[in-house]
## 1
Amino acid sequence: MQTAQRLVAASPGYELPAAISFDNVSFSYQRGDQTIQALERVSLQVSPGKFVALVGPSGCGKSTLLHLAAGLHKPSSGSVSLLGQPLQGLANEVGYVFQSDGLLAWKTVKENICLPLRIQRRPEVEVRELVADWLRRTGLAPFAQAYPAQLSGGMRKRVALAQALIHHPKLLLMDEPLSALDVHNRALIGSELLTLWTKQKSTVLFVTHDLEEAIGLADEIVVLSARPAQVKAVYPIDLPRPRNLIDIRLSPEFQRLYAAIWGELRGEVLSSCVSQS
Amino acid sequence: MFRSRNSGRWLVIGMQLVLALLLLGAWEWSARRDITFQFFVSRPSKIADKLWQWITAGDLHIHAFHTTLETVAGFLLGVVAGLILALVCFYSPLVYRVIQPAVDVANAMPRAVFGPLFILWFGLGLTSKAMLAASLVLFIVFFGTLSGLQEVEENVLHKVRLMGASRLDLLLHVQLPSALVWVFSSLRSSVGFALAGAVIGEYMGAGRGVGFQIALSQGNLDSTGVFAGLLVLSMMVLVMNGLLRRVERLLTPWRVS
């Protein structure tokens, strides 16, 4: 299963470039007078429109991988390409969602959601139309004029999702976006994420430490090793869609996948615990 | 247990009134019985008389108006200067490192000592008071704004940059509002400082203002006048706080009470 390179062949002799491709990417940074090797020769290809979950022990460099994909960091060696184009500077058309909701407290729900459109100076008519649509799709319409502090955690996460998706980014980077939510909200918002994503078909890189969540959501799971992170294995998840995140974990297929991937992940989690203590 | 919040509120107001009447009564009684020296502590009825004299003489509102004007001018000046200075230091850490000792020293210095200098430089009018008030407000705003600018969650900056934001977009949508949140939420204490600056300035040299009236009374060894002046100031503070609470609610609608 090593590095499943599942490129879509459009016609013989022509392959659609990967939405995102890491080629032998290494990354190290300085902490004090120590050099920390976060990633070592990571190679990974993600086909357009795929939902890919990255799992691995805490602190292994999963978030770093997202930052590299966005162009927020430059690899120490190797290269990152988006749709076949080597990434230079900041990637554009990227949506980014992370653990805290990261909303702007002084903007209403509506203003928060339309922020990307405002920044991209889209025409007013288009902004109004899109915002109305997204408020409806996320069930936030009654709260359009509310401020983030007046909303529950689940609501705020919906706003963050709408904000990340409204400008229709080709690439969606998600860094443990659901892990601050309680169990029920996690399943609920996860399902909503899937519904929104199915309509949009952005490529998703989803970092999580929760294997159940990863299996429920993703088309493909990439297991990363303890630091310095390397791609340990790639598992395609061929559970049928649409998926019901609440019941899916009872299916034998889910259990089989869980056991297999956990077997791979377990050793890494343990070895990272040993190296941290 | 209070039946409602409202009945609790009236109870508090009632108790406050009773407490005030008790204190004023004790003050008046002890002064009339010569237990305390009227020369030093005056007494409430004389203070009320004095206040009435000022009101009927028709210049109390002029004094109060000027003190207010100096306070507002000083506050605005301090906010603008503090914001600009913070922005400069934010975008150029080198500048900040260079001027940091000066900023710290100036901030630690009791501002009253600048009063005589400001009066020398800017005259006895409004400017010197506004400058003194501004010198107090500036540092509050500077430190608040700087940390507001610096302490935006890094992921939020990443996110907005990835939406395609320029540095200016980032400043306008994220960093500046984050800093202003702090300025708005410290509005009452900043205005309090501005008022203190204005009154100290008037006290040191002025032709009008509540601080000037207090200084004048003190010059005449008139404790009644000093107390009357303090009373006027207290009223002004109460009114200003009431107004500022409304302004705060208008400027920071996202804060849930």
## 2
Amino acid sequence: MVLETFSVAFNNIRNQKLRSYLTLLGIVIGIAAIVSLIGIVQGLQNFIGSELQSLGMNSIFVEPGSEMGMTTAVSRSLKADDLDVIRGVPGVKDATGFWETSATMKFKDQEAEVLLVGMEPDKMFMLEDMGYVEITEGREFTNTDMFSVGLYSDFAEETFDDPIQLRQTVELNGKKFRVIAISKPNTFASSFGASNMVLVTKDVVQKNFDEEDPVELIVTVNNTSEITDVQEEIEKRLEKKHGSKDFYTMTSENLLSGADAILGLVGLVVFVIAGISLLVGGIGIMNTMLMTVMERTREIGIMKAIGASSNLVLSLFLFEAGLIGLIGGILGVVIGALIGLLASVAASYEGFPFSALPSMELIGGALIFSLVVGMISGWIPANRAAKMDPVEALRFE
Amino acid sequence: MAEAVIKAVNVVKTYNMGLVQVHALSGVSFDLLKGEFVSIMGPSGSGKTTLLDVLSVLSRPTSGEVFINKKPISKMDDNELAKIRGQTIGFVFQTFNLINRLSAKENVMMPLWFQGVPKGEREKIAEKILKDVGLGDRINHKPSELSGGQRQRVAIARALAVNPDIIVADEPTGNLDSVSGDQIMDLIVDLNKKHGKTILMVTHEEDIAANAERIVRLKDGKIIADEKVKKKK
């Protein structure tokens, strides 16, 4: 009986093709917006979460400047001996820094601007733990590596016409360096636009490029549960040493919650827009169903005269409205998933390998929601049909 | 005396036409006995269609009571009335009232659907009844592809689908030429004589009404005559 009601409702929709398609449009747009945008937000959330997770939840980052200004590369408020202060804080397991400078790399008569990143060879394991570096060819750096560089494989392959091989020589500001290590691509760095990073020891930056101080410090703690206390203590001691708070600290958790807050706001905006679209879509369904009920007044009268109960008439029109909603929902999910797919492809191309495809929960939720929107919109028209007086309906011209 | 399948007691039906109250029926009492063929006659505006509507539980009386197989309808809700219309009473209308986008067979199947008969069985019943009324070669035609007489046959087939005891017909020949009208009347008389259906028919034509055993005459919402038909042999 339920199946029959469904097929009768479906035939009625098919008989009013153009009008039904136009009615679907509002729901299709609303559901497509929800599915694609929530899919993208969820994909971004997962991507950022996993990237930050790989940095380790026991890490504290010390950056120059204030949290509001993105002055990492410009201001030089951190000092090399800040590391000594940090290493003295109880609960700190290890600390290291990045010494950065820009340089011109020359390889077989071609030149490219690069970002030299100097690190402490004996603390390189920290960078490996965080996934910044993973050497796949060559060897680790040592303190005596004054003319050695490490390259990310994507940089080595793509920067110049010819790929740079292990043990080949490149020039940095006129001095010759030997490639001693190749690392796998660094997705985290490249996603922030630093795809031209070249690894050297900190001594190279300090002695050859006269950059005495690090631009960023990385600290790990013994116990993740103490991370906030350690973070506060570092801030206190560094502020005392510097005489002012010309730096700020962050944990992976701070970064994650910051990203979540922004994505949450985006999600809210999406919800409002999609909600408005679905409301309009719902009103569209209601309008169409009211017209349908009007047009079929006589038919409703006939059906009631020959034994259709009010309940059956009600369910027939509710089904029809629900079905319009559901068909709109299915089309919306398909279009939303396609938009998500396009967004994923475009994002991967730009170096953010994340999936914006909707999850099964999102698809299921969207379909149920569209069905419910249809049925709620159909409630008033269906009730009007169910309550029709058979005599009046039969004589309706 | 046979028992009353439909019994009306002091039925009043009033319509509100804006400020004016129209008394379509003012105190009608009437018994339709099992197996009877009764014609309701009267000039237009006499209330005959209103009486038919009330007797066939299409509408409720403003006051008074209608009993179907001895059960008062005032105690029934709308879904129960729908059940009576779907199981006990078959309707034939002047304007056929078929659903135009459905085939003859689908129209006949419809009341069976409301009674929860499975689809396969519905198809069998519909095909058999359409054959019985002489439309065996028209079962998949839409109403627009049929003549008036054929449409009324489909409507009669639909009325018979659930095998009801009572057939209610509102001017069944009103939209037909005389030849088709006579054929439809023969069919209705057959239903009464051969199949034992109780028939209640509204008409304003004397010779059509004369097919019945009993004629009830209505004027201004009141019964003015109720007499047996003298059969011309």
